[in-house]
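Problem: given the chain below (382 residues), write out its structure.
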Amino acid sequence: MQEKKDFGFGTQIRKSPFFDSTVKWGATGFSVYNHMYIPRDFGSPEDNFWNLINKAILCDVSVERQVEITGPDAYKFIQLLTPRDLSNLAIGQCKYVLITNKDGGILNDPVLLRMGENHFWLSLADSDILLWAQGVAINSNLDVKIIEPDVSPLQLQGPKSAKIMQALIGDSILDLKYYWLRELELYGIPIVISRTGWSSELGYEIFLRDSSKGNVLWEKIMSVGKEFGLEAGHTSSIRRIEGAMLSYHADADINTNPFELGLDRLVTLDKEINFVGKEALKKIKKTGIKRKQVGLILDCEPLKGPNTTFWKISKDNKLVGKVTSAVYSPRLKKNIALAMISIDLIEIGTVLDIESPNLKIKGTVVNKPFYDPKKKITSAQI
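Solution.
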C-alpha cells in the first residue's frame, strides 16, 4: 500500500465513497465516468488481468450510478424505457437491458435490478439516463418517482470471489443464482449483492447503501479476502474485450442500434408492449442493417495498450468501418478487437486493412466472444 497522493482533483467531479481506500491500496491513475472519478491504474494492466482470472480483484465501480424508479406505475414506466420484454422479470432478479431513443439508437446498456413490485434500479453505463428518464416521465402520464439513490457498487470478480463471499456472508450466498440479487447487512452496513459484473468472470457486485461507510466496507472485504489472494484492481479491458462486452461510447452510442450489435434478443417487437423507439426499430428490422459488429484478430506485434482512438478499416481502398476496441490478450497471445464494419464484409475469414496511428495492420474477421463464448464461467453453478 502507499500514501495518498495529490492527484489535483477538483470539486466539479465527484469522488466515490471508496476513494480514499483505492488510493491507499495503490490507485495511481483515474478517469472520469458518469461525472465521477474511477480508478483506472493499479499498476500493470497485465498483472491486473492475471489477478482477475486466477484469483480475484476488488474494483471501485461507484461510477455505475443508479437510477431508482418507484411509484404505482414504476413497472409500466421501466418497460417504456427498454425494448426488452420485462414480463418475466421477477422481484430479486436482474436483466441486461438497452435504453433506446425514438430513432432506435442506444442511449445506455445498464443492468436492471428489480428490488420490489414497483421498485427498480438501473445500474448505468456512461450516460445521463437519470435526466432522460425524468424527461420521458414528464409526458408519460405515469405516476413514478425517479431519483439517484445513495447507492455505490463495488465489483468482486474472479474465480475466488465465491469463496470470499462465503467467508464474508456465510454459505447462504452460494445459493445466489446468476443475475439475481439479495438485500442484507454486512457488519451492520446495508448492502445489496447481485451475481453480476463487467468482467466475463465469475463475480458479484456489492451495492453500498450508505456512502458514509465506503472505506469501512472496502477495508473489511480486503481483509477477509487476503487469504484468498484478493487484490485491489480495476475493470480489465483485456478480459472484457475477450468476452466481447460492450463499452458504451466506444462499441456503441446513440447512433448504434441493437441489431448492429447482434442484440436482437433484447428487442421485443411482436408483443403488445410499448417502449420508446419501437416504431423505428420495427422499420430497421424490416429494411435491414448496413453494418454490424464483428470480432477481429490483428496481425501485428503485441499492442502496448488499448486503442485510444477509432481506427479506420478499409477494403480495396474503400472505407468500410472502424475498430472500436483493441487490445493484446496475453492468454490468447493475440491482438483482439471489436469492430463495426459494412454488412457485406462480416463473413468469417474476411481480411481487412486497418490503419492505426502508428502502423497499418491486417485484420481477419473471427467469431466473438474470443474466450468462453457460451459464458460458462460467469453462469457456472457454484
